[in-house]
Write a structure and sequence with these properties.
Rossmann fold; 33% helix; binds hypoxanthine
Length: 235
């Protein structure tokens, strides 16, 4: 076990899907995995390992924000020898060119976060997805006939702010949407030579304040869950 994950070594699969929310991890595992077994529940961050179409996959919670996913992804990569992590989450669109329920495969994550610099000496304000998962997701989406935007996003440390302008780093790096985790996931994967991708569903359109309702969420996130699982088969 690691500090924040209590699964015995060997009970976490080589490929892990990481939603932010523990109850979403539970829902995906119970809906899509065969023989799903709860392998860790430290801090109620549930991790389940089971089979998807015969392949062993773990689904667990990253928590919210770069510091939290920075901890879980590091322990998964280094203590459990995980090779691939696909974050699955939601994002807010900065532009009305994106619509509610659109899917995003993150190319570069841009951030004001100092995580990459102070953790690993990685400079610059954006980090690319790592390894082949991004391309696998792109190919899998095409095969399944899912429309997907392959673009940059802003990994912000801030959810609530007084300023309504799009933050400078997001403009500079041409980010179409904002979430809060991809940057430190990609930083850890880059430092450790591992594979990491981030797949997002647009849950709100920031300029118009449109939002997916709580009732719509479960159904809305289905295509993303299925795409992530199908892509995981190819990793
Ligand atoms: N900001 C940050 N993260 C998010 C948002 C947002 O507006 N929507 C969904 N995840």
């Amino acid at each position: 076990m690691s500090i924040h994950i209590s699964a015995p070594i060997g009970e976490i699969a080589k490929t892990v899907l990481l939603p932010g929310d523990p109850l979403r991890a539970k829902y995906i595992a119970e809906t899509y995995l065969q023989q799903a077994k709860l392998v860790s529940q430290t801090r109620n961050a549930f991790y389940f390992t089971g089979l998807y179409k015969g392949k062993e996959i773990t689904i667990g919670a990253s928590g919210m924000g770069c510091p939290s996913i920075g901890i879980y992804s590091y322990e998964l990569f280094t203590e459990y020898q995980v090779d691939n992590i696909i974050r699955i989450g939601t994002c807010g669109a900065y532009t009305t060119d994106l619509k509610l329920f659109d899917l995003i495969n993150v190319d570069n994550a841009a951030s004001e976060s100092t995580f990459a610099k102070y953790a690993w000496g990685i400079g610059g304000s954006s980090i690319k997805h790592q390894g082949k998962a991004f391309n696998v997701i792109k190919r899998t989406a095409k095969k399944l006939n899912f429309a997907i935007h392959n673009c940059n996003v802003h990994s912000s440390d801030i959810f609530y702010r007084k300023d309504t302008d799009i933050p400078r780093v997001a403009v500079k790096k041409k980010c179409l949407a904002v979430e809060m985790e991809a940057f430190s996931l990609f930083a850890n994967a880059r430092h450790l030579g591992k594979t990491a991708a981030t797949l997002l569903t647009v849950s709100d359109i920031i300029p118009t304040h449109e939002k997916i309702s709580a009732d719509e969420r479960e159904k809305a996130l289905k295509p993303m869950m299925e795409l992530a699982l199908e892509a995981a088969l190819k990793l």
